[in-house]
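Every protein is a chain of amino acids, and every chain bends into a shape of its own. Below is the pair of lines this work produces for a single protein:
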Amino acid sequence: MKALIYKNNNIEFIDKPKPEIQSPRDAIVKVKLSSICTSDLHIIKGFVPQAKEEIVLGHEFVGEVVEIGSDISNIKVGDRVSANCETFCGECYFCKRGFINNCVNGGWELGCKIDGCQAEFVRVPFADKGLTKIPKNVSFENALFVGDILSSGYFGVELCDIKENETLAVIGAGPVGLCAMMCAKAIKNCNIIAIDIDNKRLNLAQKLKFADYTFNPNKIDIEKEVNKITQNRGADGVVEAAGGDNTFELAWKIARPNSVVGVVAMYEVNQILPLPQMYGKNLIFKTGGVDAIHTQMLLDLISKNRINTDFLISKVFNFDEINRAYEYFRAKTDDCLKVAIKYN
């Protein structure tokens, strides 16, 4: 089969043997659509030390089950499935508490420690947990981002413990930030402040009716504007989805006292926690990889037309064009949000 691997801080399109069942809880999935994640770019740049050389990249995909292990009973050959970006057993201390990113038998495996989805076929460990059947009225395109980007956006909202009609600030109007806004609107009915230095992305957030307010920190004083909206209290929760040079600082500055800052961004440099400056704000910081345990709920919301991530697909490439897809995504050509890679 054809596959895209990570090698010497670059990518290479190669022929590779089709994966085989290795465990009774494995499944083999024929990939129908995949996408490229910023995390894939972090691997190529060398910012993910746990990533193994010559691994098949990718962890964001949908497909059709073609083979299952003997212990799999909740999915069958021929099922259309959405894949979770996390590999998790469902049985360890962390899994039982919903912290699947910290599964002692898994975590971020696909496309990092084991072969991922940017190949014609992929082996999914613990497939009874990591694959979710796609409803009949939901297309592969509709479901493509459920297991990662959509789950990450929802995770940011969940971390903030936001309540109905409260004000949530989302820093970063990229794919994760937009999904956070969409989920907060659809599920929590929040007032949303979208913050980004890209006016086109802010305009998109407004056009999609995900945001009530849009602010560009290069043009206005964000703290001042947030205080105007919130009677000088600050935002009831802040999702930091940008990972920029000063976005972590902005997040805690615009959060009201006794609120939560949910950090779902991946940084390339260390961030500073200036405790003396924030003393008395009594903030709670929650951060880490996505615990993507709500895929069924998110698919149900898509099925009921309450949310829709089709707007994320900026361009579709065929699998044999995947090198061009990486160039397009890396360069953010045409204001690219996400790409979809189509397989035969």
Notes: Residues 146-160 form the longest helix (15 residues).
